[in-house]
Write a structure and sequence with these properties.
- There is one protein chain.
- The chain is built from 26 helices and 34 strands.
- By secondary structure, it is of the alpha/beta class.
- Strands 10-14-15-13-12-11 form a six-stranded mixed beta sheet.
- Helix 3 runs antiparallel to helix 4, helix 4 runs antiparallel to helix 5 and helix 6 runs antiparallel to helix 7.
Amino acid sequence: MDDLLADFLTETNEGLTNLDAALLQLERNPANAAILSEVFRTVHTIKGTCGFLGLPRLEGVAHSAENVLGLWRDGSLRVTQDGITLILSVTDRIKQIVAGLENAGEEPAGDDSGLRRALDALASGEAASEPVQAEPVVAEAVADTAMETSGAGGNAPQTIRVAVDVLEDLMVLVSELVLTRNQLLQLARSEENAAFAVPLQRLSQITSDLQDGVMKTRMQPIGNAWSKLPRLVRDLSRELGKRIELDMRGAETELDRQVLELIKDPLTHMVRNSADHGLEMPEQRRSAGKPETGRVILNAYHEGGHIVLEIGDDGRGLNTERIKAKALANGLATEAELAGMSEREIHRYIFRAGFSTAAEVTSVSGRGVGMDVVKTNIERIGGTVDLLSQEHRGTTFTIKIPLTLAIAAALIVEAGGERFAIPQSSVLELVRVGSAGGPRVEHVKDAPVMRLRDELLPLVPLSRLLRLNPMGEAEGQEGFVVVAQVGTQLFGITVDRVFDTEEIVVKPVAPILRHVTMFSGNTILGDGSVIMILDPSGIARASGLGAEAGDGAALQQRDLVTTASSRVVSLLLFKAGDAAPMAVPLAVVARLENLEVARMERAGGNLVVQYRGKLMPLVSFDHWVPAPEARTQAVLVFGDDDRAMGLMVDEILDVVEVMLEVDATGARPGFLGSCVVDGRVTDILDPAYWLKLGCRDWFQRGSARSSRPRLLIVEDSDFFRNLIVPALMAAGYEPTTVANGRDALRLRDAGEVFDAIVSDINMPELDGFGLARAVRQGGIWSELPMIALSGQSDPADVERGRAAGFSDYIPKFDHEALLASLQQCLQPILAN
């Protein structure tokens, strides 16, 4: 292939990448002359160059398309959806021909007469005599081989085309330079006052700068991986008969080109699943009070050394019962195990190979392939995938992947006499165990755990997991715990020694070790030794801590402090005054706090403290109060929604798991009875008694509060919101405020329920009239009373407000009139 043809193919592929997106924009906005001109220029350039290079087939297709685009541009022909579909078929055909050119160096054979007749018929204003569908593209366009920076006029920066292979070779050389630098630094540490210490420090700095520069050449915006998704969603919308809107955010977020290539397929799978499985048909959405158009949202952002991708939809959500039935039918879990799992754990069965709850196999999905491919590909590059789903509200997948795979910071540790590297991006903190006054390793049902800030952290002894401790000596009594996180799972990896953090060059795992999922690669240290790189997600799965673990042993390991038995509970042991130890079920305690005594005040004869922006009542045993010299006070915080009550105690003793056998004989007020805990008789607290003691209407406020009418206040003025909200609360309403109509409609789309809407008329983005019209068009708010507030209330304004859909129109600062209007509009609710 000569250089002229190679340049043509590169430019054509770049033009085709932008062409799909431009055509979709033109479909949404047919009057946009700038976009239409861009599309015309791209096709015209392809046609003109084809004639020069002697490519008659490509020239003929482009020429017929150019005729249609020219008529659109001149205004002689109207842009229609069918016309856009036909031009998209042209882009697919051009991609097919270009792919053949790349593979064979000449145009592939093919018949384009049907497509060209349809284009000619459209240009002449006639209906196509035969339907034309887009042919599948037999090969993807070549990988982007240009480093481009967008610009405008003489201010645009100069660019140069560089083959991807050249950049890859450069990256390999820099990686080897980093290894050599590390070896020299290792030698320098063993030499004192070495003559080469200063130049070595300079070399290290230059190497780091060179590494950063090369890494920048590999970084590309993630929007490059999203470029085909708008077209994919449009085609799916037509194929499935659904109205779908694709919302892409953070397209400028950059990551390594190698990572970018590896996530294209997972992203495609997930978007297709969201469109097919997630979003309902228009009539189903309408009956559920949702907009007919479903939304698929892509969001990307940086977080530490990772990039986080969110793929979500506002559809039907996952059906938990159907997933449980499928897991049971496939033998993946027993009924007892499923009963002990959280809803989120059950949802993760969709990542199992071959797992599908689709009622029928379609051309889009339903074969049970896709989500397991997503999980495998993401974990292969050191990432994690998690999901959160609410039935009838939608599903969001969260992918967390490293920015680059070539060079990474890692913590070097030792276990069982061997050294390993743990990616620094997976390490949350490092804790030394066994030292005086420090945390210690405990055991619950033979499972090692560590108490970290009042939480039990499951531990994974690395030497035992990798079978590096054949003598069976005691582990974990002294050493270090590397606290790691995989998805939502927090756990600790126990190691013997910790050395230092180094920048390592990541090498792929040898084929002989690929079945060992605890390793993600290997690297060479400064002293020349080869060590393995640990994969925290693989360690979690191997030790039964993964969220998708399904067997009985994994279930026991995953749930360290509770079991399926209703009589086995976790108790929080504490002391208060001179009394014997007491206990309360851990599940009812929201938080453990050490509050400053100086912050405690008296209000109405009761002890209170300002806690999280509100006053929290404090309750003690037998009117006991903190000693004057005490600086802090241990408090058990009980919480429910926005309310909290604190029970003051002397000391938190322990958390224990016991078979609860309560003896109610001789029970006194405030206690359920007694139970034997660790060989001692322990009083079991009655939380309801102390909650009512701290807040008399604790159990009544919930029902009374739920009966208070909920109002949505749409007002862009902070001043007016501060005036109206206290008045409404004092009158017995529960107001929620937003700053404009757009934010209000987002609450509607999210399924928020209100009893009435009070809206200003003049607001940015979407004013009161536009909001009223949107509400009355349909949805869960379509029948709500709507009260307009405005500084202008002449008859013409009132009539315009009622025509838009408002129930009443009131002067803005007339609070009495507003309350009277609400009383009248909500009379049936208030009467109940």
